[in-house]
Amino acid sequence: MTSAHTTNAQAPSSLTTSFPRVLHAHGPDPERKAKLELYSWLVGQWEIDVTTILEDGRTHAGRGEIHAGWILQGRAIQDVWMIPRLNRRRPDIEQLPGAGNWYGTTLRIYDPNLDAWRILWNDPATNVFTQQTGRARGRDIVQEGPDPGGGSMRWTFAEIEPASFHWTAERSLDHKNWRKQVDIRARRV
Predict the structure, then answer these.
(1) Alpha carbon distance 167, 141 (integer Å)
(2) What are the boundaries of the region Disordered (predicted)?
């Protein structure tokens, strides 16, 4: 009788492919390329200037970075957003008021049944998990979904250019009155 350990040692060579190799893709899936273009501009590396806006109107500034790439045979985009920048992260660093110190990832997956993108954001550094739906709204991209703290959230990519974009995070308790919580200006590196 063969043990599980022996069986695993004799696994076919296709199972020895590295995790990064099976996750990452070189570009969008050709069959879905037209629909995947909504977020394709995000692929790459970005520096970000972050402003948080507290409920009392006070603001705080920080810097961070974003890294984004194609994954899952080009059917999705994954990114990592971090504040502060990776080379400034250490255990004793002060939290950015109103946002905390992000180190999270987004999965952006086009859903042909919705003709929209399913957005999954998870940040174990700040213990935040959200699900949103993303769609084009004119030249902007708007992602909306329930806020884990109650109410609704809206995250908007605007002023999208090849080397820059503007991103805002807003929250509403009544889906009518929106309060901006985070404002980001990004530059391609």
Answers:
(1) 10
(2) 1-28
pLDDT digits (tens, 9 = 90+) for 17-58: 898 888 999 999 999 899 999 999 999 999 999 999 999 999
Phi, psi of 89 (to 5 degrees): -75, 130
Cα 101 to chain center, whole Å? 15
**Among the four given CATH numbers 3.40.50.40, 3.40.640.10, 2.40.128.20, 3.40.50.300, the one describing domain 28-188:** 2.40.128.20
* Beta carbons of 171 and 178 less than 8 angstroms apart: yes
Backbone angles phi, psi at 141, to 5 degrees: -120, 125
- Residue 30 is classified by DSSP as G
135: enclosing H helix or E strand: strand 128-137
What is the value of pTM for the model shown? 0.86
User: Residue 48 corresponds to which tokens in the numbers above?
Assistant: 């970000």
The one-letter amino acid code at 15 reads: L
